[in-house]
Design a protein that fits this description.
CATH topology of the largest domain: Immunoglobulin-like
Strand content: 25-35%
Distance between the termini: 90 Å
CATH architecture of the largest domain: Sandwich
Number of strands: 9
Largest sheet: 5 strands, antiparallel
Order of helices and strands: HHEEEEEEEEE
Structural class: alpha+beta
CATH class of the largest domain: Mainly Beta
Radius of gyration: 35 Å
Number of helices: 2
Length: 189
Amino acid sequence: MTTIAPTTSTTTSPVATAPTEQPQIGEEYNSFLKLLTAQLRNQDPLAPLDSTQFVEQLATFSSLEQDVKSNSSLDVIAAKMSDLYAIAASQWIGQTVSVETSWVPFSSQALDFAVDIPEEADRAILSVKNTAGDVVWTETLDSKAESFSWDGRNQATGATSAAGQYQFGIELYRSDEYYGTVAPQLAGS
Protein backbone atom coordinates (compact mmCIF):
# COMPACT_ATOMS: atom_id res chain seq x y z
CA MET A 1 0.00 0.00 0.00
CA THR A 2 1.32 3.40 -1.00
CA THR A 3 0.54 6.46 1.02
CA ILE A 4 0.72 9.90 -0.41
CA ALA A 5 1.62 12.71 1.89
CA PRO A 6 -0.69 15.69 1.75
CA THR A 7 0.78 18.65 -0.10
CA THR A 8 0.91 21.97 1.53
CA SER A 9 0.98 25.21 -0.29
CA THR A 10 3.65 27.64 0.79
CA THR A 11 4.01 31.16 -0.34
CA THR A 12 7.49 32.28 -1.20
CA SER A 13 8.52 35.84 -1.17
CA PRO A 14 10.77 37.11 -3.91
CA VAL A 15 14.36 37.04 -2.81
CA ALA A 16 16.80 39.50 -4.26
CA THR A 17 19.61 37.62 -5.87
CA ALA A 18 23.05 39.02 -6.10
CA PRO A 19 24.31 39.52 -9.62
CA THR A 20 26.46 36.63 -10.69
CA GLU A 21 30.04 37.60 -11.00
CA GLN A 22 31.70 36.90 -14.28
CA PRO A 23 34.88 34.91 -14.05
CA GLN A 24 38.06 36.92 -14.07
CA ILE A 25 40.31 36.77 -17.11
CA GLY A 26 42.91 34.67 -15.31
CA GLU A 27 40.25 32.16 -14.21
CA GLU A 28 39.15 31.58 -17.79
CA TYR A 29 42.78 31.18 -18.84
CA ASN A 30 43.28 28.56 -16.11
CA SER A 31 40.10 26.79 -17.25
CA PHE A 32 41.42 26.76 -20.79
CA LEU A 33 44.70 25.21 -19.62
CA LYS A 34 42.80 22.56 -17.63
CA LEU A 35 40.73 21.66 -20.69
CA LEU A 36 43.84 21.56 -22.85
CA THR A 37 45.69 19.23 -20.47
CA ALA A 38 42.58 17.02 -20.10
CA GLN A 39 42.34 16.82 -23.89
CA LEU A 40 46.02 15.84 -24.13
CA ARG A 41 45.67 13.29 -21.34
CA ASN A 42 42.63 11.62 -22.91
CA GLN A 43 43.60 11.65 -26.57
CA ASP A 44 43.97 8.47 -28.57
CA PRO A 45 47.67 7.52 -28.54
CA LEU A 46 47.35 5.93 -31.99
CA ALA A 47 45.89 9.13 -33.52
CA PRO A 48 47.30 12.10 -31.57
CA LEU A 49 46.05 15.59 -32.28
CA ASP A 50 48.25 18.05 -34.12
CA SER A 51 50.36 20.03 -31.61
CA THR A 52 50.31 23.16 -33.79
CA GLN A 53 46.53 23.35 -33.27
CA PHE A 54 47.10 23.50 -29.52
CA VAL A 55 49.66 26.27 -29.92
CA GLU A 56 47.30 28.19 -32.21
CA GLN A 57 44.45 27.83 -29.72
CA LEU A 58 46.69 28.98 -26.88
CA ALA A 59 47.96 31.97 -28.89
CA THR A 60 44.42 32.94 -29.92
CA PHE A 61 43.17 32.73 -26.37
CA SER A 62 46.13 34.74 -25.10
CA SER A 63 45.51 37.41 -27.74
CA LEU A 64 41.82 37.54 -26.84
CA GLU A 65 42.71 37.89 -23.17
CA GLN A 66 44.97 40.87 -23.94
CA ASP A 67 42.24 42.49 -26.07
CA VAL A 68 39.72 42.19 -23.25
CA LYS A 69 42.20 43.70 -20.78
CA SER A 70 42.92 46.56 -23.22
CA ASN A 71 39.21 47.27 -23.70
CA SER A 72 38.58 47.45 -19.97
CA SER A 73 41.60 49.75 -19.56
CA LEU A 74 40.32 51.98 -22.36
CA ASP A 75 36.89 52.13 -20.71
CA VAL A 76 38.52 53.36 -17.49
CA ILE A 77 40.58 55.95 -19.38
CA ALA A 78 37.50 57.18 -21.30
CA ALA A 79 35.54 57.58 -18.07
CA LYS A 80 38.35 59.58 -16.48
CA MET A 81 38.68 61.79 -19.57
CA SER A 82 34.94 62.46 -19.49
CA ASP A 83 35.27 63.58 -15.88
CA LEU A 84 38.19 65.86 -16.83
CA TYR A 85 36.17 67.43 -19.66
CA ALA A 86 33.31 68.11 -17.26
CA ILE A 87 35.69 69.77 -14.79
CA ALA A 88 37.28 71.87 -17.54
CA ALA A 89 33.89 72.85 -18.98
CA SER A 90 32.59 73.89 -15.57
CA GLN A 91 35.19 76.67 -15.52
CA TRP A 92 33.43 78.27 -18.52
CA ILE A 93 30.00 78.51 -16.89
CA GLY A 94 28.84 82.13 -17.05
CA GLN A 95 31.65 83.10 -19.46
CA THR A 96 31.31 84.32 -23.03
CA VAL A 97 32.94 82.03 -25.55
CA SER A 98 33.62 82.70 -29.22
CA VAL A 99 33.87 79.93 -31.79
CA GLU A 100 35.33 80.24 -35.27
CA THR A 101 33.07 78.51 -37.77
CA SER A 102 32.16 78.75 -41.44
CA TRP A 103 28.61 77.45 -41.00
CA VAL A 104 26.40 79.82 -39.06
CA PRO A 105 22.81 79.23 -37.89
CA PHE A 106 20.46 82.07 -38.83
CA SER A 107 17.03 82.42 -37.18
CA SER A 108 15.59 85.63 -38.67
CA GLN A 109 17.37 87.94 -36.18
CA ALA A 110 20.47 89.95 -36.93
CA LEU A 111 23.57 87.83 -36.62
CA ASP A 112 26.56 89.45 -34.90
CA PHE A 113 30.02 88.11 -35.53
CA ALA A 114 33.67 89.10 -35.25
CA VAL A 115 36.54 88.64 -37.68
CA ASP A 116 40.27 88.69 -37.07
CA ILE A 117 41.46 90.57 -40.13
CA PRO A 118 45.27 90.60 -40.32
CA GLU A 119 46.92 94.01 -40.55
CA GLU A 120 48.49 93.04 -43.89
CA ALA A 121 45.05 92.71 -45.50
CA ASP A 122 43.65 95.94 -46.85
CA ARG A 123 40.30 94.53 -48.02
CA ALA A 124 37.92 91.90 -46.67
CA ILE A 125 34.85 90.66 -48.55
CA LEU A 126 32.10 88.76 -46.76
CA SER A 127 30.28 86.15 -48.80
CA VAL A 128 27.19 84.41 -47.37
CA LYS A 129 25.90 81.27 -49.13
CA ASN A 130 22.84 79.13 -48.46
CA THR A 131 23.02 75.33 -48.19
CA ALA A 132 22.54 75.02 -51.96
CA GLY A 133 25.74 77.03 -52.47
CA ASP A 134 23.96 80.12 -53.84
CA VAL A 135 25.39 83.49 -52.74
CA VAL A 136 22.72 85.43 -50.85
CA TRP A 137 24.85 88.32 -49.58
CA THR A 138 28.19 89.95 -50.41
CA GLU A 139 29.66 92.90 -48.58
CA THR A 140 33.02 94.62 -48.27
CA LEU A 141 33.93 94.78 -44.58
CA ASP A 142 35.84 97.59 -42.92
CA SER A 143 39.24 96.02 -42.24
CA LYS A 144 39.71 98.25 -39.17
CA ALA A 145 36.46 97.15 -37.49
CA GLU A 146 36.32 94.15 -35.15
CA SER A 147 32.63 93.28 -35.07
CA PHE A 148 30.05 92.99 -37.83
CA SER A 149 26.41 92.08 -38.34
CA TRP A 150 24.30 90.45 -41.05
CA ASP A 151 20.58 91.10 -40.84
CA GLY A 152 19.70 88.15 -43.09
CA ARG A 153 18.83 90.18 -46.16
CA ASN A 154 19.07 88.46 -49.51
CA GLN A 155 20.96 90.70 -51.90
CA ALA A 156 18.99 89.59 -54.97
CA THR A 157 15.48 89.90 -53.52
CA GLY A 158 15.92 92.34 -50.63
CA ALA A 159 13.80 90.00 -48.47
CA THR A 160 14.96 88.39 -45.28
CA SER A 161 16.50 84.96 -45.86
CA ALA A 162 14.83 81.86 -44.46
CA ALA A 163 16.01 80.47 -41.14
CA GLY A 164 18.69 77.82 -41.53
CA GLN A 165 22.41 77.25 -41.92
CA TYR A 166 24.50 79.65 -43.97
CA GLN A 167 28.14 79.43 -44.98
CA PHE A 168 30.21 82.51 -44.22
CA GLY A 169 33.50 83.13 -45.91
CA ILE A 170 35.63 86.24 -45.60
CA GLU A 171 38.11 86.59 -48.44
CA LEU A 172 41.13 88.75 -47.68
CA TYR A 173 43.08 90.79 -50.22
CA ARG A 174 46.34 92.69 -50.03
CA SER A 175 46.89 95.19 -52.84
CA ASP A 176 44.22 93.44 -54.94
CA GLU A 177 46.03 90.10 -54.50
CA TYR A 178 44.17 87.23 -52.86
CA TYR A 179 45.60 86.78 -49.33
CA GLY A 180 43.40 84.00 -47.90
CA THR A 181 40.03 83.20 -46.37
CA VAL A 182 38.96 83.35 -42.72
CA ALA A 183 35.81 82.30 -40.90
CA PRO A 184 33.76 84.49 -38.58
CA GLN A 185 33.79 84.09 -34.81
CA LEU A 186 30.42 83.71 -33.14
CA ALA A 187 30.06 84.66 -29.49
CA GLY A 188 27.81 82.86 -27.06
CA SER A 189 27.41 82.47 -23.33
